[in-house]
Amino acid sequence: MSDQPHVYPVPDDFASKAWADKATYQAMYQRSLDDPEGFWAEQAECLDWFKAPSKIKHTVFDTHDVDIRWFEDGCLNVSSNCLDRHLETRGDQTAIIWEGDDPKDSKTLTYRQLHERTCQLANALKDMGVKRGDTVTLYMPMIPEAAMAMLACARIGAVHSVVFGGFSPDALAQRVKDAGSRVVITADESVRGGKQVPLKDNVDAALTREGSDVCEKVLVVQRTGGEIDWHEGRDLWFHEQVDPQSTDCPAEEMGAEDPLFILYTSGSTGAPKGLKHTTGGYLLHAALTHRYVFDYHDGDIYWCTADVGWVTGHSYIVYGPLANGATTLMFEGVPSYPTNGRMGEIVDKHQVNILYTAPTAVRALMAHGDDVMDSSSRDSLRLLGSVGEPINPEAWEWFHRVIGKQRCPIVDTWWQTETGGIMIAPLPGATDLKPGSATLPFFGVQPALVDNEGNILEGATEGNLVMLDAWPGQARSIWNNHERFLQTYFSTYKGMYFTGDGCRRDEDGYYWITGRVDDVLNVSGHRMGTAEIESSLVAHESVAEAAVVGFPHDIKGQGIYIYVTLADDVEPSDELKKELTKWVRKDIGPIASPDVIQWAPGLPKTRSGKIMRRILRKIAANECDGLGDTSTLADPSVVDDLIEHRANR
Ligand code: WT7
User: Fold this and answer.
1) Rounded to the nearest whole angstrom, what is the distance from the C-alpha of residue 215 to the centroid of ligand 1?
2) What region holds the AMP-dependent synthetase/ligase domain (predicted)?
3) What pLDDT is stored for residue 620 in this prediction?
């Protein structure tokens, strides 16, 4: 077998019909670097401005003074860009197709209906005292009200902070407190895979935690009618507040650099950080990438399987598609319910043309064999997309051959919560594909690879992935903590944005992301800090010390491997393993469930007391031959014990 990956050339029909062919991509990309001001001024014309910007780009990537402003004297409103401006031409077109957890449940909302409901909700929020600049936390199921809530906040200039509905009360409390939200919007319960998740109970619990009493009002969507506690004076039913409101609510004129939302994500240290995204640049980046990378054309039915609790849901279920007047499908459930054929069945039912999903979902299906897709034809599909983690070539090929029936290009899109939108990805009419590579940078994106000293490496090589200049959708800061923003992203390599990812570039200039180089895990496309899980564990009375690393996992990409040193006099047992698993799930959420727990009488440490994670990662991966230099360890014998009792072989 040759080392050269199989190349999938651009299909002819894409080259002729797509928004960009090879020459267009190259010309536009080059122009975006040579003349960023001119390029972005022109692109910004695709948005509707109350006041068009005259200042286009003011960006400083200096370690001591990071200052990122795009279109700073322009005024616009995100909700009127996603709704009002479409009413004349496509008021009766479907904006959102909602597919419930139960296959018998689905409905559609036209642009006109979505506009009316959003205006009503915006008026209700105003009645509840929400003002421009206030933050509102959303802890919601995947129902159209989630999109309405985001758009209603945007309409009145409030800043939303969506917290994934799978997070625990403690995780929610931490985020409500940090954002300082006086209002939380939730539902009685969400429904996933036939099971109810008690969202309102979780909110009740969260709001008993210290500091989360900043929240004064809870607006509750009735999703299931399940039983919930009611706090008179604090809790309000969504339908009672929203239904009587006027369907007219003028959109606030926001500055391009006014905050649109906060979204929390995990880093290698400390509490989750609330990335701050602003209005003009973010919306332009989301809309432009949605149009070019998914080659979105009028009439296409587009489905992104993410949850609105993650940035993918923000940019590619709600803002990008709606800004482009698209029909976007929102799915409440899970791909394995009621059967493993559900994803294909949804594609057939709604005649989906573009399907954007995650490698972990593809691998889970692949594990069931090709006939898992037999219950659907998927003949409507034209294009596939992947996001969240590197897609291994095997899963890529299966995605292409079985799900896409060898007809559909796959756009493997690399980006991050911090980047706001897609950064490195093929354009289906312009880029030949190589399975496993996110290929080439989007307009205005200037990736580089650097060594550990920050020297820029040229040609085909491998290194740390950085960005040399700003792009419009970039996060501007960390909420309440600009210093941490500088430290996290701009202090490792001077004058550059550091992504935290390692990456290889081949002779054709294609980028191949190799995964995180920091202590961040990526489990089923969910990002988690090892430090967060460790601090949860050491809070348990039986635990003296804990170290968490990732290990290769067939379906999740990475699994969570935990080394635990027990407190004196505590005996290891299977019960205790179960107890610790429950503890972490309760503390952070089910997505942080450990896959493997190993009892560790001692952890490998340097003489200065630093845990050597490199060694722990190798043992977790069952690669015990190449442990490298262990001579700097304070007590090399602990390694032998860990190897002997390793749990993954
Ligand atoms: C991290 C960002 C971007 C939305 C979902 C995740 C990894 C993401 C890819 C890809 C290889 C990828 C990176 C990145 N990642 N997409 N196509 N190929 N790796 O957002 O939670 O902020 O995580 O996900 O490691 O740094 P996020």
Assistant:
1) 32
2) 84-467
3) 96
